[in-house]
Every structure is written in structure tokens, then in C-alpha cells.
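Risk register update: the risk of archive-format incompatibility is retired. Evidence:
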Amino acid sequence: MADTSKQIRAFDADGHFLERIEDILPYIEAPWRDQAELWPGDQPWVINPPQPRPYDYGFGLTPAEQLDIWHRVLDDHDIEGAALFSSLGAASVCTIQAPDFAVAAARACNTHFATDYASDRLKPMGVLPMRDPQAAAAELRRAAGLGIIGFEVMPIGLPFGLGDPFYDPIYRAAEDLDVTICVHGTRLASHEFGASILRNFSEVHTYAFPAGVILHFTSVMTQGLPLRFPSLRMAFLEIGCTWLPYYLDRLDEHYEKRGPTDMPMLSDRPSDMFRGSRIKVSLEAIESLLPQTVEYVGAGHLVYATDLPHWDTEFPANLREVRETGALSPAVKERILYSNAKELFRT
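Archived output:
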């Protein structure tokens, strides 16, 4: 059923497809084709708790069936297009220990995504073997040539924080080709970010997603990545946006006390650097402090996400909430729902 609220155009900055391992394997090149274990993990819980999903969109659908659902979603809810992120491939690639296999897996994923999940309105994001920056930069350039306009970076499986100069070859290539780097929340193994002391799925899921994203946001900000690569398009996704005022205030406090020692790249407070950057952060839930966050960081840094078809999506209620709220002006709603995502992904 179409959304009947007063329409403000939208672009989904973080939707997903549910790729099937059997569809990726044919793209893996020799000698790895017969050795591929693409979905490691140690969680003892059901990864996706059973509950109704919009459009009955669940695992096991072919790429064509998923694209059909996505086009119906866009049409039904007056959404112009969507950036679509991997649900399995990115988490798999970032945890593969063997460097050559990580490259082969990234190549297979990106070729599959660009071939089977793209349309004029749907833009699949690629994945990168981040432990090898030179190889990741080369794969970024290859995948961009296939039409991939952005890359999903998971906060797990990384040797350093994402602000570290170790990754500069990747950021240089992304800046040169004007493609987007998206840091996307996830959790895979129970030990990540100290979650091994927690006892159930909700505890781990609640904690680990923001812990991982904020960990790398800290590195990006304190290492001055927006100053080193001022044209880099970057986003932090899947944990909401209303943590920003609290955490930027905390970073500012440390800058004021220890800036020359710990943040020598910065000439001003981290919050001011963020406001002057091209970094975007997604909102996906119905966030009660959204107006205050807009006031603090500015409307230009927030993008809307359906998070469809993940089990915890709040779509379409979250889209209706932003469209109908009286707490935001029409101009701010348009920025959050549409213009900022168009700018982020160059669509």
C-alpha cells in the first residue's frame, strides 16, 4: 500500500540485499573456487529472529526476485532510489585471514553485486580487502569501473582504526574516483568489542553495532581524516544519528585537554571539523532526539535509511515519521530524506 502521508521525495541511503553464497561462488577465481568458506562466525543464536518483514522479504530469494521487491518498495513509498549494501559478503571479506583469498572474495562479491543487483534506481555497494590497502585500492578502481559507486567497510577484522594513515591508499583512490566509503555497523563473533561478556542476542546486538562504528569514528576524527582527504565522501551507517552530540562533545573535551599531544592534525575542535566535513550519518529508527541533533550538527550531515529487509527495520514507519513530524522544517526534511543522500552517492 502506498504511503498516504504528504510526500517529500526520498532516497534510501542504506538498504540491503540478501545475497546467497551460492550466487557468489561462481565468480570466485581459481585457485580459490573450491576452497571458499565465505561465512565464518561463532554466534550460537538465530542471526535473524523470526518476525514479519515488509513485502515478505527474506533469505533465499534470487537477485531478480529481490530487485522486483525493491522496485515495488520504491514505487509504493515515493522513494527515488536506494543504495544497497551486502548482508553477508562484507562481513565475510573483512574476516578472511588469507590475504589472497580476501582479494579473490572481494572481487567475486563486487562482480556479482554489479552484475546482478544493479538497476537504474538501485545502486549496489562494493566490498574491499581492507587488510591490504594496496590491493584494496586496486580492487576499488576495478569495481568502480563496473559501476560500483561506493564501498561498505565493516568495523570488524581491521588492523587499525580507520583514521590511520595505513589506509591512505584506499582513501586516495576513493577521492580520485569520487566514490563513497561507508562504515557500516555489524557484529559477527562474540568476542568483538568486548561483547563476549554479554549473555544474549539483544545484549550483543544493542551494544556491538554502536561500539564498532564509534570506535572507528573516533579514529577518523582524532586522526584528522577529513583534513587529509577533504574531498572524500564518507558515511557512518546502521546505528542511528542521535549519538553525535554526546560523542562530539566528548571528543571536544579531549581536544581541549590533550589536543596538541593526541590530535596534532586538528586546528579546531572535532565537532567543528565534523560540521565542515563531507561525512554523513544515517538515521533509521524513530529517534526522539533528532531535532536536537539537527540543531547541533546541521541538517547537511544526516541521511535517511530504510534498513530493509533486515529483521529490525522500522520501515515504513520511520519514513512516515520524518515526513509527518512538525519538529523539522520542510527544507530540513528534504535534506535528510533526499538531497544529502544524492550528494553522498553522486546519483
